[in-house]
Amino acid sequence: MDYQYPISHQWSTEETVDVINFFQSVERAYEKGITRNDLMQAYRRFKEIVPGKADEKNICNEFEEVSGYSAYQVVKKMRQAAPEEKIQF
């Protein structure tokens, strides 16, 4: 990994860790797969920290620019998946 995660100076340390955990979950979906439940848990926490759609889109687009991984596509696939299904690209 040769990039930095998009973070806000307004977030607490715990919130920053949780946002990074979500982006690492997106990475796992691309690299080796992640269970829908694990991804859902990380995404729900991410949405508590970044509740607005516009903010979510901006942060996820920043992440995609530096990593090449689309959080949008991962979340879209998660929403369509069965509860115990593994999300993988």
TrEMBL record:
Cross-referenced Pfam families: UPF0223
Transmembrane parts of this sequence: none
Top-rank taxon, per record: Bacteria
Entry-linked SUPFAM superfamilies: BH2638-like
Family the UniProt entry places it in: Belongs to the UPF0223 family.
Protein name listed in UniProt: UPF0223 protein D4T97_008900
Organism: Siminovitchia acidinfaciens
